Each structure stands twice: as C-alpha cells, then as structure tokens.
Automatic annotation (TrEMBL):
This is Gamma-aminobutyric acid receptor subunit pi. Heteropentamer, formed by a combination of alpha (GABRA1-6), beta (GABRB1-3), gamma (GABRG1-3), delta (GABRD), epsilon (GABRE), rho (GABRR1-3), pi (GABRP) and theta (GABRQ) chains, each subunit exhibiting distinct physiological and pharmacological properties. It catalyses: chloride(in) = chloride(out). Residues 10-210 form the Neurotransmitter-gated ion-channel ligand-binding domain. Residues 334-375 are annotated as: Disordered. It is a multi-pass membrane protein. Residues 218-425 form the Neurotransmitter-gated ion-channel transmembrane domain. Its main location: membrane. Pi subunit of the heteropentameric ligand-gated chloride channel gated by gamma-aminobutyric acid (GABA). GABA-gated chloride channels, also named GABA(A) receptors (GABAAR), consist of five subunits arranged around a central pore and contain GABA active binding site(s) located at the alpha and beta subunit interfaces. When activated by GABA, GABAARs selectively allow the flow of chloride anions across the cell membrane down their electrochemical gradient. Pi-containing GABAARs are mostly located in peripheral tissues. Residues 351-366 have a biased composition (Low complexity). It is found in: Apical cell membrane. The chain crosses the membrane at residues 211-235, 241-265, 277-296, 411-430.
C-alpha cells in the first residue's frame, strides 16, 4: 500500500512539510556546519592547472520541523533527500563534478531527535588551482577547495567548519605520485557579488613537489651530457671527425632532452621555470665545448700559416743580411784602394794629415760619424713594433700554442660548471 512506503514517524514529519522553504530559527539565518574527508587526490595537472579529488562532504543543520520524540536517530534512504530542504552548496572553482551512483547514489540522510540533519555526499570534482611554476620542479603549490551557497545570502544561511582545522581529514594518509602534503588549514569568509554577500568556506592545502624523479629523469642525464662533451678536450686537435661527432651528438641529445622535459608543462606560459634555466645552462656548456674546438682548430691552422710566414720573413732577412755583407766588403775594398793611391804621392802638408782620419769623407773637410742613424727611422720602427704587439694581443689567431686552449678548457669548463651549479641550487632551494 502507498501508506506503508514511509514509516509512521517519517509520515508524521513529512505532513505539512514544505521542502522549498528553508528552516527558520529565531528569524535568523540557518547555520550549516561543514566537514570534509579527502578520499583521494587522483591527478594534479600543471598543463590544465587543476587537480581532481574525491571527497566526502558532510553538512549539518537544524530544522525544527523535523523534531521527533525518541533517543535514536533515523537513517533514511538517500533517495528521500528529494523530500527535504538541503543547502544549495556548490564548489566554486569546479570545472567538472559528479556524484557517484554505483550501486545507488552515494548519499546519506540522518535525522536526529532534536531536528539536526546530517547530509553526506561522495563527490569527485576537478578544481582549478592557480600554480606558480617559476621554481618548477622545486616548487610549492597552494590549492584551495571553496564551498559557497548559490542562492542564499548571509541573511539566510551561514556556513562554519564544525571542528576548525580538524574538520578536514584524510590528507595525512594520502600517497601522491609527485607531491607531499606539507600543511593544510581552513578559513571562513564571504563572497561578494552584485547580487549580495554569500557565505563561503575555504580549505587550503600546500603541496610540495618531490624532486627525486626529476633528478633521475632530467638533471642527472643533462649533467652527464655536459661531462661527455668535455671528453673532446682530451682528443687530439687533428682528430676532426671524432671531436665533431661528440660535439654534434651531445648538442642534439641535449635538444631532445629539453623538448621532452617540456611535454608535461603548459606550451604557452609566462613562466621561466627552474628546470628551463638548468637545461639552458647545460646546453650552453655543451655548445661552448663545440665552439671551443672550432676556435682551437682555427688557431691551429693560423699558427701553421704564421710559421710559414715567419720562415719566409727570416729567409728574406737572411738575404738582406747577405746582400749587406757583400756591399760592406766591396765598400771596404774600394776604401783600401783609395788609401794606396795617395801613398805613392809626396807627403802632404800637416793639414792634410787631419783629412785622412775620415776616409769616408770625399773632400776631407768635414768628417761624419758613422754610428748615428736618422731619428725618424727609429720613431717609425717603434710605432710599428707597438702596433704589432697590440694586434697580437687582440687577435686570437696569434696564439703561441693552440694546444694550450684544450689544456685551459680542461680546467675552466669543469670549474665553471661546478660554480654555476652551486649558485643554481642555492638560489632555488633557499631563496
């Protein structure tokens, strides 16, 4: 029979009950207490900047129309919620939510003798979470779960956490893939819209990313690629194929690693992430090792050409010296011949004796000193020597020994990489 569908107590409570009217308590707002049980946090997406969680939402309020005699509560079928007034609570930043209905709708209704109603739901929801990925993957993200009343303002309904920060449970036992829950707390506020002020409860939880996965997946391989690029410093400069092969292979492998590290992140964003900085540093060192060989090889070719030019210059100077010696010998021979010719003539006057002191003087009247070169020539030589020194200092082609470039690189590249790593990890871990 239709009258036997509901127990007599429920039939009496539902008689004259209007589910479209909220409970009135001393003409004040209805106070609704909230508590949460986090069953699981399934996914946390950096691409979509959201998280998906399954929660048990419990709401408590008092409806004087449901007071009955007795000392035991009444547990009703969840489908009877259609007969009662319930708060119009919604999740503010929810992108997609659904109520579980296997095997039946996961709802719970319990009425206590004093008119208190316990209403529990099992919900899976995807909630937006604004993330700051500047320090990714050494970042901490603070996400929220906000509960508001859709139609009732603060004059009709007031929300509160039943046990303060302890109103939310289940986070301590969660095992997340990349995160650990560091802290969580609750707060009470109001949402202000054009239509009025509405009650709002906010649950905050802080997630810290586990970096071990990224160390094994990205940081260690990229560092090993940098070390591999240094192997070329111990290979001879004449082994062009070997050194080019190492340089190009490490550059291409590093490029592939950089592209793979960005697949799990937003394609277009304004963040310069910590992992991007490190991959950029490693790529710079690998590319620098390739450029180092190009410079060293070029200096080797220039050094060999310089040796040929120096040899030709020395041969030219040697030819000039030989021509000078021959010229000097012929000059001395002519002077000796001139001395013999006046010796056959009678001895000249005493004044002529002074003229023989300088054989190079054709007239014998004004002797010239032989060891004083013209001053303009000395000034030109000084300027040319100075310019040559400046050009040798500026130009990298005038390396004394190109093999020293590899020797210096064996020390400077590792030391520089260690120093950059110290600065990088200190900044992103402690600042």
């Amino acid at each position: 029979k239709e009258g036997e569908i509901l127990p007599p107590t429920i039939q009496r409570l539902m008689k004259g009950y209007n589910k479209y009217l909220r409970p009135f308590f001393d003409n004040g707002p209805v106070t609704v207490g909230m508590s949460l049980d986090i069953a699981s946090i399934d996914t946390i997406s950096e691409i979509n900047m959201d998280y998906t969680a399954t929660i048990f939402l419990r709401q408590r309020w008092t409806d004087e129309r449901l007071v009955f005699e007795g000392n035991k509560s009444l547990s009703l079928d969840g489908r009877l919620v259609e007969l009662l007034w319930v708060p119009d609570t919604f999740i503010v930043d929810s992108k997609k939510s659904f109520l579980h209905d296997i095997t039946v709708e996961n709802r719970l209704i319990r009425i206590f003798p004093n008119g208190t109603v316990l209403y529990a739901l099992r919900i899976t929801t995807t909630v937006a979470c604004n993330m700051d990925l500047t320090k990714y993957p050494m970042d901490k993200q603070t996400c929220t779960l906000q509960l508001e009343s859709w139609g009732y303002n603060i004059n009709d309904v007031m929300f509160y956490w039943t046990r303060g920060n302890e109103s939310v449970s289940g986070l301590d036992s969660l095992q997340l893939a990349q995160y650990t829950v560091e802290d969580h707390y609750t707060s009470v506020s109001e949402a202000i819209y054009e239509t009025g002020r509405y009650p709002k409860l906010v649950f905050h939880f802080e997630l810290k990313r586990s970096i071990l996965y990224f160390i094994l997946e990205t940081y260690v391989p990229s560092s090993l690629l940098v070390v591999l690029s240094w192997v070329s410093f111990w290979i001879s400069l004449s082994s062009v194929p070997a050194r080019i092969c190492i340089g190009v292979t490490t550059v291409l492998t590093m490029t592939t690693l950089m592209m793979g590290a960005r697949t799990s992140l937003p394609n277009a964003n304004c963040f310069i992430k910590a992992i991007d900085v490190y991959l950029g540093i490693c790529f710079s060192f690998i590319f620098g090792a390739l450029i180092e060989y190009a410079v060293a090889h070029f200096c080797t070719l220039s050094h060999s050409d310089a040796h040929m030019l120096m040899y030709r210059h020395h041969m030219h100077d040697f030819d000039d010296e030989m021509n000078g010696i021959v010229t000097t010998i012929s000059t001395h021979a002519s002077r000796a011949k001139r001395r013999k010719e006046p010796a056959a003539t009678p001895p000249p006057a005493p004044a002529s004796t002074e003229l023989t002191v300088s054989p190079s003087s054709p007239s014998g009247s004004e002797p010239k000193p032989e060891a004083s070169p013209p001053e303009p020539t000395n000034w030109c030589l000084t300027v040319l020597a100075t310019l040559r020194k400046v050009l040798r200092f500026i130009s990298c082609c005038h390396v004394e020994n190109p093999h020293h470039i590899d020797n210096y690189s064996r020390v400077t590249f590792p030391l520089s990489f260690v120093m950059v790593n110290l600065l990088y990890w200190t900044y992103y871990l402690y600042f």
